[in-house]
Structure formats: structure tokens, C-alpha cells
Amino acid sequence: MTLLPVTSAISPSSDYPPPPRVHWVVLLLAWFALSMLVAVSAPFRYQNLLDSLIVNSWAVYLCLWLRRLNPEAASFFWCDVYVVVEIAYALIFAVPHRSEALDTLGAFLALASAILATVTIFIIRSELLQHYNHREPIGLDLSGVMTFFFSFLYFQAKLYPIATLKEDLAAQAAASSPNFKIQ
Q1: What sign does the dihedral 117-88-111-55 (CA atoms) show?
Q2: Residue boundaries of the structural domains of the chain
Q3: DSSP conformational letter for 94
Q4: CA-based, 20 to 30 A from 176: which of 3, 12, 60, 170?
Q5: Rg (CA), the chain
């Protein structure tokens, strides 16, 4: 992967916090391990709810980080709405002996959740592109198709090298600056 054609735009003393330094494979393995733990230990009717919380926790974390980059970021609001609808959907299907009306509401919330998830993912994509192509112009490129199919794993695949580069630049700056001791 060709990374960051303009590295001079990233300074170790940047006003912006680095992206989460988690490799996408580690994120995938963590999601998988936690989902397996839920599958083995949680009652069946709560598994969908717990699986939703596992995946949504990373979405909320990423949106909180985006809010640190830009306090006016809209992704956090949309992510909150998505998470609330997703949890409501999962809670409805956790209810034993549901009525037909509750099943209909659950189906409606499932559709709304899928739409809100897509909207949230593309808002996050837009905010990432805005930040890394204008505020910290490093030439980030995010495919719409990859965003749709792999969303947060794809974002992490693109953000991890940026986090690593920012960490390396900070280490180089620290190593090159003289250390003065007052005696």
C-alpha cells in the first residue's frame, strides 16, 4: 500500500490526536473472540444484543476520536442514533413470546438500523476524508465500495499506517531534540 505521499504535513507536534493504533486484523480477531465468548456463555436470546454492543463499541470509539479531531463532527450524533436503534431492535428480539405487532416493530427497527448504519459509515468516511485531505493533507483515499462492505475494518486498515507514521515522527523528533538537564 502506498502510504502518505505528503509526510511533511504530519508533524509530531500536531494539534490533532493520532488515529487509534489498532491493526485491522487485531480488531477483527477481538470482535471474533468476543463474539465467540458471547456465543458460548450468553443465553441465546441475548446474543444478538451483546454482539451488537461489541461491534458498536468500536463505532462509538471511532466517532469519539473523530469528535476530538473536529468538535463539529456529525458522525457521533448519527452513530448514537444508530446504536440506540440497533439496541432497541436487539432488545425486541430478546423478548420471549413476542406479539405480531412487536415482530413488525422489530422488523422496522432492523431496516432502520441497516439504513442508519450505512449513513453513519459514510458520514465517518466523509469526515475522515475531510480531515486527512484538508486539515492534515496526507492524501487519504477511501473507496466507497470498500467502505460499504468492510466499514470499520477498512477504516482501521487505512488509519493504522497513519497512527504508526505519526508515532514514528514523534519518536524521531524526540530523539533529535537535545535533552537539557538543569543541575
Answers
A1: positive
A2: 44-162
A3: T
A4: 3
A5: 20
Does residue 90 contact residue 48 with C-beta atoms inside 8 Å? yes
The per-residue pLDDT for range 62-89, each reduced to its tens digit, is 999 999 999 999 999 999 999 999 999 9
Distance CA 107, CA 45 (A): 16
C-alpha–C-alpha distance, residues 33 and 39, integer Å: 10
**97, HSE (Cβ side, Cα atoms, 13 Å):** 0
Q: Which three cell numbers mark 84?
A: 440506540
pLDDT tens, position by position, 84-93:
999 999 999 8
Euclidean distance between the first and the last CA atom of the chain, given in angstroms as a whole number? 48
Low-confidence stretches of the chain (pLDDT beneath 50): 1-7, 12-13, 180
| Amino acid 174: pLDDT | 79
Look at residues 10, 48, 20, 25 and name the one whose alpha carbon lies nearest to residue 139: 10
For residues 167 and 7, the answer to whether their CB atoms sit within 8 Å is no
| Residue 170 to residue 14: CA distance in whole angstroms | 9
Helix segments in 42-99, DSSP class H: 44-69, 75-92
